[in-house]
Amino acid sequence: MTSALAAIGTVVSLNVSRGGVPKNPLNDSMVTLLGLETDAHNYRGHGGPERAICIYPLEHIQALQQEGHPIGIGTTGENVTVEGLDWNRMIPGAQVKIGEIQLEITSYTRPCKTIRESFTGGRFGRISQKAHPGWSRVYARVLTEGRIHSGDPVEVTSSGTPLFDPITSGNGPTFEQYR
Question: What pLDDT band is residue 1 in, cutting at 50, 70 and 90?
Answer without folding.
Answer: very low
